[in-house]
Amino acid sequence: MAANDYFSHTGQDGSGVGERATQQGYHWRTVGENIAAGHTNAEAAIESWIKSPGHCRNLMNDDFTEMGMAHAENADARFTHYWVQTLGAPR
Fold it and tell me: What is the pTM of this model?
């Protein structure tokens, strides 16, 4: 998202989080995603997810047993800072 200056749960190729997780070799039973943009640190991104009902549901979902989080920065992009959290449970 940072490299291409866009912000969406849908990849520019039309993919969803499940497709992207599968493409990376993750064999999942359930998978979810939280994204944030503009926050300069992880604490602020997580706080925004906690305050958002849908994102908070992902954070508190007992079905998810694994999580990965990433940050990318691009000074030329609209939001500069982009955060992605992928939550899942393996098969």
Answer: 0.93
